[in-house]
Amino acid sequence: MAAIVSPTPPQRLALAREADAADWLAGLPALVDTVLARWELTAERVAEPGGRTSMTVLVRCADGERAVLKLCAPGTPAGLEEAALRRWDGLGAVRVLRSLPEAGALLLERLHGETSLRSLPEAKAMLEAVSAVRRLWVDPGPGDVFPSVAERTGHAVPALRAAVAGEAGPLAEEALRLRAELVADAREHLLLHGDFRQGAVLASDAGRSPWLAVGPEPVTGERAYDLARLVRDRLHDLVASPGAAAVTRRRVKRLADSVEVDPERLRGWTLFRAVESGVRSLAAGRRAEGELLLECAGWL
Length: 300
Known about the structure:
Blueprint: H1 11-16, H2 22-39, E1 42-46, E2 54-60, E3 66-72, H3 78-88, E4 96-100, E5 105-109, E6 112-116, H4 122-134, H5 149-154, H6 157-163, H7 169-184, E7 190-192, E8 201-203, E9 211-213, E10 219-221, H8 223-231, H9 235-240, H10 244-259, H11 263-283, H12 287-299
Antiparallel strand pairs: 1-2, 2-3, 3-5, 4-5, 6-8, 7-10, 8-9
Helix pairs in contact: 6-7, 7-11, 8-10, 8-11, 10-11, 11-12
């Protein structure tokens, strides 16, 4: 059985992990070999640049089927990702072929990882994105195992409270206020992708859809939360365009209208998610990224 020429974790993954993940990073090559042997897979190459919390290997199954082996870092919700993908069962999202929960390993159908919705012109990409995300908004099903939006966003509250005293103070305070209002008046209980954006929708030749979602961070809640990450897509292009603030506000209105959600709730979740990401980026030393996200939040 063929082995990977160099199973070294992608640099993006190595740089993103904290010190307590060092053992996992060091053991990744051996883990890959173990899973390859167990599932009788032949590795082709490590996908680059890969994610920040997972390593992806392009493989072939014993019957020649092309697939993707995804190994998730400790602390990432591999089990929740599998549960969501199985709930969708290929409707709008990639299919799970096999799983090994104790190893954080998922074997997924192969999509065109090099071609996401970001390859399309902006207007077309947004239309396809809305079409794709609509198919994911389903009932969580029996034995709902997914965290709620209130639970997920609650983890960010301490950092935002601490940020109130810093440079992001007014925005952090507003984000906390908006979150409190939104979760107190929760209106829907649907399964959401959780990290939906153009880059998370890949081209497919599976036949059931030309575009399929990958990499969910599933939660349950309202549709406006899922659309919020999409509002700030292609943020660098937005900043470089004239009237970026007005363009962003128009995006909120158009996306809200396209799926009939309250534009004020979408604005609120978009601001919260931008501030939360901005504060997290600043704390991680990614200052340019953090400042850009906070600027985006300021437009709203």
